[in-house]
Please model this.
Amino acid sequence: IAGTMHPDAGRIVIDGQAVYDSSQPLDLSPQVRRVGYVPQHYALFPHLTAAANIGFGLAHLPRGEREQRVSEMVILFGLQGLAHRRPRELSGGQQQRVALARALAVQPRLLLLDEPFAALDVSLRESLREELAQVQTRTGITVVMVTHDLTDAFALGQRIVVYETGQVIQHGTREEIFFHPATRHV
Model:
């Protein structure tokens, strides 16, 4: 979806715009696709401050505009007072919020999350789940999240796709998946 890997076949459409189509010579670059991505272990740059990590994808903007956008993200994610710290000086939850802020700072059309809460303790997971739901509501962004955690799926998923050995075995609304599973595995 993000454009970092080349699919064998198929079609990828984001907000009604095809970004990949194997039947045509269409494979838009990751920058053109405007997809935010937060990997499982955040991938923050250790030598950069939280603010510099958040602003990393904004180099094309004039300095004042870039600083304004970083400031907005710092406030949105409750990172006031932490902008000048490096990742090693931040807690796991703070690092997660920096990674989310960096992904959203570029104003993506879609946000991809890979096991976003896997490395966090239970209370922090719950808090960040609520924060992510609020951010999703405020920004209106579509989020695609990969998770093995049923609580994450139930709390955040509106539509869920269940995979087994690389194959879709059921997809539908949260209620369909949780209350009417198609198989015992689901």
Q: What stands out?
A: The chain has a mean pLDDT of 91. Strands lie at 11-14, 17-21, 26-27, 35-38, 110-114, 142-146, 159-164, 167-173.
